# Entry
Amino acid sequence: MLSNPMFLAMTVLNGLSMAMVLFIIAAGLTLILGVLRIINFAHGAFFMLGGYVAWQVAEVWLDGVPGALWIGAVVSALVLGVLALVVERTMLKHLYGREEHYQLLFTFALVLLINDAVKVIWGTDILTISHPDSLRGAADLGVTFYPKYRLFLCAFGVVVAVGLWLLVEKTRWGRLTRAARMDREMLSALGVHVPTVYASVFVLGAGLAGMGGALAAADRSLFPGMDAEIIVQCFIIVIIGGLGSLWGAFLGAIMLGLLTSFGTIFFPQFELVLVYLLMIGILLVRPWGLLGREEAT
Amino acid sequence: MRVLLLAIAALAGFAALPFLFGDYGIFLGAEILIFILFALAFNLMLGHGGLVSFGHAAYFAIAAYALAILLTTYNWPLGLAFPGAVLMSTVAAVIIGYFCVRLTAIYFAMLTLAFSQLVWAIAFKWSDVTGGDEGFVGVAIPDWLTQPVSFYYVTLVVVAICSAMLWVIVHSAFGHTLRATRENPQRAEFLGIPVRKVRLVTFILSGTFTGVAGALFTLLNRAVFVEFAWWTKSAEVLIMSILGGVGSFFGPALGAAALILLDRQITEITEYWPTVLGIILLIVLFFLPDGLIGLFKKRKPDA
# Structure
């Protein structure tokens, strides 16, 4: 089958476009895990909520307006950012000193609340967002035709990765987050208000999830409960790449995307098993992930 | 002494239940008993060992599936199939635990999650054996167990014995050693305690008792579904434990009973049970750090 270039290209592109959507979500998750050390189960719910907000904007309020999806994606990111800020300031910040399982339970409570909120507001029907006019149809790549929107997703994922990398490596804010990861007490002693750093990371992560949800909604469909599957995939990515590692998440997303697209063709029975085996294997050999940093335990 | 009296009172209460309620009440009572055992077994790791397992659904589901398969596909008698099914969970806990105890904190939780998702993926995809998405329905239960009352009393006896065993474990020298490894693993190591080995033994014990609960659950439902292995089941037992209070032996039992009763009561009134549960969790997190059992306890300085 692989000798057919058209088929090979399609499979690779399917894997990559899936990977890039997952990367945008997982990037937020890995930032939060790396800096706040919180296993955020609500991240999938943030993603789902982002999709629904974008649907509301693009398909209801701005139906027929050119570029409605892009506006929806920006609105989603903003709404989720504000929501995350409120959640962090009113509740999450009081849990920083507590054991992991309390934080885990807190994010799980958010999952329950957001899922019900989505059901109340948008119902349980499956919703879809149509592609923007400029990205409708397929592009001719020489070997094959491929949906333009998915090609856009591939490119956009790379843009987000580079943008986040610049933010984390080249700005003062990025330096603060890296410092907060390594030694929060020392950072605090140097006069930096660490809770503000935490809040900003949580807001950025949620905003990314919201935007990812908006962009994914135009490629797949929206339904309550869709968060449970996506969160597990994002955890796999973050673990493979290393907690807190941006390029790790990028690499992990590509591995998961390609493993899924090729796995469904060659081992349709065991593609899921393969994914979990990969994750277990990496955790055992390099618990800190492919590109993560080893930590004293 | 007070604990013993309370335990006897609780046992008497459960024993009287079939005389007070109809078949539905008996079914619910059996379900509560099973989840009490699940939560107590889980809390051996969380509360007493400080080990956050996010994959206990695995041991629950393995024994549940194993019992269904041994009884139905292989026609084993219950007396053999039940211990056999629990043994499968034990074996799984030995293998998974062996790898997991090398890691700590977030990494430990993640690896337990990964393994349990692997179990889920296998149960989901291996449909010839497990029934896959459709579930394993029509488990061949021995006739005498199909009576709700007889099944209820079997469950009560099994859960009571297992709970007593867990109580003895928690209050044995091993239990104290376990708490030492939770409080300060480094110091425990310096004192010559083999921390990893203690954690592995805990992991295996916890997985085994969880398996007992899983096998009982198969007998109750006469079916096994792939959701038993999905990660939300692991979250459920975590919720039960924290809701009741992880710092006390009986806290998780109270949490299990409370969660199931609330679930049934509130779903009758509204379909938004998750919202209610979410709010309950927030209240417990912010106002009842010791869980529901904290309401009944005088605060001890060193609990």
